[in-house]
């Protein structure tokens, strides 16, 4: 199980992503719309030299004649190594951009956020067998009775 702060990304953030609609409500650099990770995280140096750090995806990506392009704006001319990083970023962005009708949506995991999906996410990497889970999550015991039962059994 990955705990928040262990590698910079917690279990919740790891599953959180932004799904593009029209791209107007999604930050190009700061929202996790490309493979569930922010471009700021992957391309920190490009973010540092970008003029507009809060630009939306819709304002950053243009289309002309069916061909998509980015509208880059830098504080300074890029170094040669930064241009190579930019090429990787361009390929990633243009491969991920797919505008649809409607507003942008937050997604977690494979669908909308649910407590069950969060619980399963936490349990998937848990290699130890936890016997107490069966007692706490016993379907025949009402939830409000399960926790006092656990407290009494631990004393």
Automatic annotation (TrEMBL):
Species the sequence originates in: Trifolium pratense (Red clover)
Origin: domain of life: Eukaryota
Entry protein name: Uncharacterized protein
């Amino acid at each position: 199980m990955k705990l928040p702060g262990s590698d910079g990304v917690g279990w919740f953030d790891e599953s959180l992503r932004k799904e593009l609609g029209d791209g107007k409500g999604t930050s190009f650099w700061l929202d996790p719309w490309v493979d569930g990770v922010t471009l700021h995280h992957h391309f920190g140096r490009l973010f540092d030299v970008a003029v507009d750090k809060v630009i939306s995806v819709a304002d950053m990506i243009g289309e002309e004649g069916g061909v998509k392009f980015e509208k880059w704006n830098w504080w300074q001319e890029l170094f040669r190594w930064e241009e190579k990083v930019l090429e990787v970023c361009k390929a990633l962005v243009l491969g991920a951009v797919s505008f649809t009708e409607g507003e942008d949506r937050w997604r977690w995991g494979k669908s909308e956020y649910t407590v069950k999906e969060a619980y399963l996410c936490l349990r998937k990497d848990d290699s130890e067998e936890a016997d107490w889970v069966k007692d706490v999550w016993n379907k025949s015991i009402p939830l409000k009775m399960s926790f006092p039962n656990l407290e009494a059994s631990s004393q």
